[in-house]
Amino acid sequence: MVESAEPPRVLVVEHEAECPPGLWGGWLTGAGLRLDVVRPYSGDPVPEAVDAYDGLLVLGGSPGPLDDERYPWLPATRALLRTAFEHGTPTFGICLGAELMTVELGGRVERRRTPQIGVYELEVLPAAAGDAVFGGLAGSPPAMLWHLEEMSVLPPGAVPLMSGTTSPHQAFRLGANAWGTQFHPEATPRIVTDWARESAVLRRAGAGSDEVVGQLAAARADTERTWRPVARRWASRIRLRHAGRLLPS
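Now predict its structure.
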């Protein structure tokens, strides 16, 4: 019997236990990928290189992207994002992950006066139509937002893919192989319930925990139907990288 080939490997940087890969992780493993999760908040070192991996996923969390004193692994994570970008490794940043990519590669992140929390209908921008990952989106897709920081200026050369709220950049592509979202395609009602224990943030947003969890529960079928294909298209980029058939950025 011939052993199966090693599956494509994705390095996942998880910043907090309350911010796991969630739905996104399930969709990627369902697409045949192996996720290697590092948890620097528990003492795992952030790798210096991505040579051993076919993709990089950097998740969200409560830190600001330059909150290095309280979260001392952030400089290493930013450096890893730069390395992945320069090597053309398929990369995806979710909320904090996208903010880290933004500041490391020449953009700017600013703090909002009021957190943006809840399910919002977003706007698909024209450039998304030809995008390898976000192509195929139509209408006003719903997404879960939970952020205080926002990407106010994207890095040079970045292509805006989605907008639709007072935070101007909800999704973007940088080069040929790096993507970021301000919103949370990985979120489930249980994950959001954990976030909702941070009542101070909710009070600043003028929202209640039951309200926000209920919004996502009501929209869950639509959000999963929208973002599962996006995750799978990103997984396809990783399989191409694994097979040696992905062109560099």
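The CA atoms of residues 197 and 209 lie 8 Å apart.
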